[in-house]
Amino acid sequence: MSDTPKFTVIDRRKFKADEEKENAQAPAPEPPAVTAPVAPSAGPRLVVNESKREAARVEAPEAASGQEAEPELPPPPTAEESHEQKTAYDASAQRLEDMVRAQNPAMGP
Q1: Is 58 part of a structural domain of the chain?
Q2: Is residue 92 part of a domain?
Q3: pLDDT score at 68
């Protein structure tokens, strides 16, 4: 075999000596400062944006003034309404079962 290479690598990247010197002398950029306190646990943490914090600060005085922050819940369904809902649920489940069987007649229940 011969000692001559079969191909030549040509580096076509553009380098400017001045930029390389400036980049070498410039200090590394500082990492962004952490604004939220660090939790002692090593698990996942909730990250809160500043706008959400401000909204929480605005809402907090209203809740602290003695007013309940929880909205009133609607009354629970009556026994009659619960029975109607269960009947409607069972009927729709049966309709779906009939549709599936109609599409796959060879398939068992």
Answers
A1: no
A2: yes
A3: 57
Which residue matches tokens 């003695």?
Answer: 66
On the question of pLDDT at 42 being above 90, the answer is no
The residue range of the domain holding 96 is 81-109
At 24, which amino acid appears?
A: A
Q: Total structural domains in the chain? A: 1
**Structural tokens at position 64:** 């602290």
Do 45 and 39 meet the contact criterion of CB atoms below 8 Å apart?
yes
CA distance 71 to 76: 15
Query: 105 burial class (0-12, 13-18, 19+ CB within 10 angstroms)?
Result: exposed
pLDDT at 38 over 80: no
